[in-house]
Write a structure and sequence with these properties.
Radius of gyration: 16 Å
Order of helices and strands: EHEEHHHHEEHEH
Low-confidence stretches: 13-22, 151-165
Shape: globular
């Protein structure tokens, strides 16, 4: 059962978001019942809002340097940074439209983030264009059982069909 905790879209006017949510790929960061829409990439949003994620800009620059990548490049440094923020409670969401259509929800461990994931699915079904048959890929970086981590178990609780990846 989904806990009745409303989510708050923080950085966009609600009316314009709801009118334009079907325009293609969309991306979000979620934490503490707040949803942050990313205007471009997740890593760019993180780099532009380091304080929000508890980082110092210098720390992120060092991670990119360690991997010999340009700051903002979508490679190994990005993956390391995203994994580290999921471990402090952040959830990364992207609706992909090409080469195949699906929603991707990434977090540290499903059991820890189940309520937040369920609440997001419910919110997205009402406000962000998530449809009943849309496939959802759940990825728990720290989940030991990959089947459990990637199975959209929470969809039934939100009144949505399971769909396929």
């Amino acid at each position: 059962m989904i806990e009745n905790q409303s989510l708050i879209l923080t950085n966009r006017d609600k009316t314009s978001y709801e009118e334009n949510h079907n325009c293609g790929t969309i991306a979000f960061w979620i934490k503490d019942r707040r949803i942050y829409e990313c205007e471009s990439s997740h890593i760019r949003f993180l780099l532009d809002n380091t304080d929000l994620f508890g980082f110092k800009k210098e720390d992120l620059v060092e991670i990119f340097r360690k991997h010999k990548e340009k700051i903002g490049f979508e490679g190994k440094a990005r993956e390391e940074i995203i994994k580290s923020v999921t471990r402090i409670g952040w959830i990364r969401v992207r609706k992909y439209i090409s080469p195949r259509y699906y929603w991707s929800i990434q977090f540290d461990a499903y059991e820890k983030r189940k309520v937040e994931v369920d609440n997001f699915i419910l919110w997205a079904s009402k406000r962000a264009g998530l449809k009943k048959k849309d496939p959802i890929a759940l990825l728990g970086y720290d989940d030991v059982d990959p089947q459990k981590a990637c199975t959209p178990l929470s969809r039934e609780n939100a009144g949505l069909s399971a769909g396929e990846d």
